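Input record (Table S2, row 595):
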Amino acid sequence: MGCTVVQKLPRRDELIPPHLRPGRELLAEGRALARDWQVGRNAFIDARGVACEADYKRMVAAEGRIMQHAHIGFRSVERTVAAIAEVHGTCARRGVTVDRFGITLDWSMGYPVAMRKGSRRGTGIVLDSAEDFARITNAAPAAAHFGDFMLGLPGALENAKGALAAGATAIGNLGQYFTFRMPDWDDDVATTQATVTALGLIAAQPVEVLVHSNLDDGFAGLLADMSSALGMVIIEKHIVETLIGARASHCFGHHFTAPLVRMAFHKALTLVTQTPGTMIFGNTVSYKSTPAGNYASLASYLQADIWALTRVASGHAVNPVPVTENERIPDIDEIIDAQTFAARLAMHARDSAPLIDVAQVDALATRLVAGARLFADRVLGGLNEIGIDTDDPAELMLALRRVGPKRIEAHFGAGTLDAAAWGGRKAVALAEWVEELEHAARDWAGAVPADTAARIRGRGFRACVASSDVHEHGKNLIERTLAHLGVEVLDAGTSVDADDLVAAALEARADVIAISTYNGIALRYAREVQGHLAGAGAAIPVCIGGRLNEVPEDSNSGLPVDVAADIRAIGITPCDDPAGLIAVLGDLAGPVPAN
Ligand code: B12
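Output record (cobalamin complex):
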């Protein structure tokens, strides 16, 4: 067995600054706010005759029906309200019940309200007041799910107040607390305090409010072992349920492709928590084809989720993601098609479910649960050992966030130490995204003609690699591909501001800058990088890939448009894939030397 060099854990005083307020004070402050901010009424609560979505989930599960979740991702409130009404109404006329709507809020909602005006915007909507939230929760008699950019970020408290007053009883996304960083916002103490206070307010509500956490947005999207991801459920339950007295409702799915893995993770989840789940997210990473091809991927993951929910009615809704999602934000008729497809598939599943061999599913679930319990015990025990008060939610959350997923897994993962493994441990069950990225990187590097590869290797290039936002897989892929080509990689980080990236590249004397960007800000970010380079009088070649689009300021549709040509026009190389960057390196390496 090999051994691995694990970076030492910081001491408590290196992790927790003295000005972090104790969790009990923050919770008391949140609870006091519940006098003025309580769950209000809305179209869903009135029409369904329930006090909250958790009650509705239990009711629907008892009926033996599977709930359906639709995600709406437009940039204007008007369009969002109209889309919810149209999707709900059209589906109802077809006999399809859309039980809940997830609203894609803009990332700028992560800031406190006062900072939002004039800040950068992404591709979602901005709701600043309880009235704004109420427009959404009254658009149709379906539960409104406010997930991303609500909790876990500096604007958590204001967002929670607005959503509760509008009658929302599933609010997230706690997963984001652990990983997301708002541009130009480095105060994670303020973020922690806002989040814990908001959780205190939620816990003090007279009805059950689900604190949604999308594991894939948190550490699960970055932990290489699926048992660690499940272990985070146990840790988040400890924080939200045991220490705070609210309900933690978990969601997973983005990065889970194999039907066995989806079914096993779901089963394992139900063995570690009984709180109703919000939804099982669509496996959007599998959408790599045309809409017709993507229907096969939709069927593959949805079928598994339906079988899983037929076995254990955990309250999760299924999430049929429209098949155009890998191209752009889906439109209304595409959302309706996906919902109709899901309802039909659920109907067919009644006949196919008994054919499934669940022994494999249960065997993997048992391994995951054992690994998860070990991971959670080790994390809490290990943090205790360095002096963290694991009974203080604020202190525990900040410690987890600051230690970060890589070090947490390296120190506390359930797998045995193995220097050759990703993350330094042999996983109990390796995350599928790790396997895929490793393969893809080897394939891209392997496809480079031998003489080009030799020229690149011979020059000893240094590349500065970064992502403009939380999407990290494109960046990982580039780093791994470059490493295979003998290019030294300087990791400038994820969610990096353009000025910091340029500073890092200049300091490292990088030969090339490689940026991965996804949040619909590609042109603006490229311009900022170019501006900072020009300001420093430097001319380092820059390549950018990922999702090269942006919503134009004068857009009617609110949908992003391709900006690759504009990026090229300012002198930055837009890349569809790693080959674009490799070509730039090939050019930099110069011609094949004459013999
Ligand atoms: C995985 C994923 C996530 C994960 C990311 C996990 C992680 N740690 O990385 C999570 C769940 C966290 C996530 C979150 C969000 N996401 Co997301 N996400 C995706 C998804 C499904 C896959 C993207 C991905 O990583 N692919 C894997 C990479 C390796 O493959 P690829 O993208 O095809 O990349 C190729 C090339 O582009 C190239 N490449 C990539 N980068 C670079 C860089 C260089 C230099 C070069 C040369 C090449 C290159 O290499 C690859 C191979 O050819 C896409 C949808 C999709 N199917 O593409 C949405 C998507 C990118 N997300 C989207 C959105 C909106 C979000 C959110 C804002 C959602 C929300 N409600 O809040 C948040 C982001 C919040 C934030 N603060 O930034 C949108 C972006 C919309 C747009 N711009 O049009 C997409 C397109 C989904 C959609 N249709 O709405 N997401």
